[in-house]
UniProtKB/TrEMBL annotation, chains A, B:
One of its GO terms (molecular function) is DNA-binding transcription factor activity. Pfam families: GntR (PF00392), UTRA (PF07702). InterPro entries: Bact_HTH_transcr_reg, Chorismate_lyase_/UTRA_dom_sf, Tscrpt_reg_HTH_GntR, UTRA, WH-like_DNA-bd_sf, WH_DNA-bd_sf. It comes from the Bacteria. This is GntR family transcriptional regulator. GO terms for biological process: negative regulation of DNA-templated transcription. Keywords: DNA-binding, Transcription, Transcription regulation. Signal peptide: none annotated. The keyword ATP-binding does not apply. It comes from Mycolicibacterium brisbanense. PROSITE patterns: HTH_GNTR (PS50949). Gene3D superfamilies: Chorismate lyase-like, Winged helix-like DNA-binding domain superfamily/Winged helix DNA-binding domain. Residues 7-75 form the HTH gntR-type domain.
Length: 245, 245
DNA sequence: CAGTGGTCTAGACCACAGT
DNA sequence: CTGTGGTCTAGACCACTGA
């Protein structure tokens, strides 16, 4: 055993088990070691072990039930709730090639939906980024991001066609801490249709997103529209429903 | 204060705090009582209190940070990761009136997508339920559910226009334990359009769902199509998820 | 029945917030 | 600094699983 990271023990246990599952050390339907075995192996008490198992459960990797050890539910976290990882990382995990074609990066006054989402006044400036995102070279999504001015101004030094904007911002001290997504469907506008190479009026899966940084401040509002033939969102929720309520 | 249910203490704490938040006892941005205050109030140790707070965090109701008490993030328990609530319950929580108009309940051989999702042979029988779901009397969603035969046959004794199918099945020993959702967009078919009272070709938000019972067996496959003007899905996901202790 | 996970307690130490 | 939440331990009891 190496690794005496600064990671909390429960995170270390979760990370190790997650790797084993992704590496297919266990088959689907197979049981993980018992909790007490994991306690022994990692030299921790039951608390951190159970916290790690809860994490993997929330990721859709395992299923928990009383009286018997955890069971592997899926090998890849990609198809599960981690769909809400940034586009570039998501594509990489799925073995696809992600690309970007930037249409514009503009500093202007906030649009009305952005004002509401970012809690800004009509006179406040924001930075709008309009990009077409490509999967294996094919247009798969059109992304309209709006950043608050202090964050958006960082983007003028960044080649929005290369690399991950998420990683770039993280390097500048802006971390995505939590996101809220609203999913619905819209008909493709003329602009959408032209940039995605589809017919106007085609159904698109829309994700409207507000992102908060580590201090809980909203700094991004985005309207992403996906071609449903190419991208779908997958969500797993493993949870026993409470009788009451 | 009533309820000394057989609910676990952490569930009781979570339920009570959830009600207070929905009831707007705390404003958005306001702090909840400290953990030790909650321990005193509910007469429990920190473990259950922290587990309850983790639940509310996963539901997107509160935000946690180190060194200061939990902060209210939202008043609405919308469709979050942990609470992908059945239609009827979701409507009730949001103060809407849910209704159903059953088009057909039929026992027949499984369609191809259902065969795949339910892991059945082409010769196996299933029970299909086609319903229009109403919100405040207006058609909001068209639901095509397919149940494995053993579960579906229970439904012939059930008035699918009244009450909650989820509750009914739970009463017969079939519990929804985990679900997987795939979200995308489709153009309304002629059948969709007619039943929802919209134009054919209109964009609809589609949710394809496979549900497992408490033994991990898939027993339902559903294709639900929502009118995006009336219903959208809201999902909150935060960086670190950490129940337990 | 023995073993397992689900829950809970009563302590403890650390990192961080606000004063 | 004090108080807060984040983490951890070492016990314990109960409900369920499976031989």
């Amino acid at each position: 055993m190496a690794s005496s990271d600064s990671l909390p023990r429960h995170a270390h246990v979760a990370s190790e088990l997650r790797q084993r599952i992704i590496r297919r050390d266990y088959l689907i339907g197979e049981s993980l070691p018992t909790e007490s075995a994991l306690c022994t192996e990692f030299g921790v008490s039951r608390g951190p072990v159970r916290q790690a198992l809860a994490t993997l459960k929330n990721e859709g990797l395992i299923r928990l039930s009383q009286g018997k050890p955890a069971v592997v539910r899926s090998h890849d976290a990609t198809q599960t709730l981690d769909t809400f990882t940034p586009f570039t990382q998501w594509a990489q995990r799925n073995g696809r090639t992600a690309g970007s074609r930037t249409v514009e990066v503009a500093r202007r006054r906030a649009s009305e939906p952005a004002q509401v989402a970012l809690d800004l006044a009509a006179t406040d400036f924001v930075v709008d980024v309009l990009r077409v995102r490509l999967l294996d070279g094919e247009p798969a999504m059109i992304e309209r991001s709006t950043f608050i001015d202090s964050v958006g101004s960082l983007l003028f030094d960044f080649d929005t066609d290369s690399g991950s904007m998420t990683d770039y911002l993280a390097g500048r001290g802006v971390y995505f801490d939590s996101m809220e997504h609203i999913l619905d469907a819209v008909a493709a506008s003329d602009v959408d249709a032209e940039n995605l190479g589809i017919a106007a009026g085609s159904p698109l899966l829309r994700e409207r997103r507000t992102s908060r940084d580590q201090n809980g401040r909203v700094f991004e509002y985005a309207d992403d529209r996906y071609r449903p033939e190419l991208v779908a969102f997958s969500i797993v929720n493993a949870k026993t429903i409470d009788p009451r309520m």
